[in-house]
């Protein structure tokens, strides 16, 4: 279960304002934002699949 630790790391890095000042920090924060969205999306779709497997498969099709 690596998702909770990832969310904690992303939350910590977002709270520090120095990440958006340097170009490398901007790139890393953008990558973290994309990674957070992807992990949240996969986590939500996984939970949604567990609760509503029929409606989820209908949505994909």
UniProtKB/TrEMBL annotation:
Compositional bias ranges of the Polar residues kind: 13-27
Domain of life: Eukaryota
Protein name: Chromosome 2, complete genome
Native organism taxonomy: Eukaryota, Fungi, Dikarya, Ascomycota, Pezizomycotina
Chain spans, region Disordered: 1-28
């Amino acid at each position: 279960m690596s998702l909770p630790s990832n969310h904690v790391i992303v939350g910590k890095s977002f709270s520090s304002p120095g990440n958006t000042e340097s170009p490398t920090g901007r790139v890393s924060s953008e990558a973290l934002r994309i990674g957070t969205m992807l992990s949240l999306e996969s986590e939500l779709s996984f939970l949604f699949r567990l609760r509503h497997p029929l409606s989820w498969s209908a949505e994909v099709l």
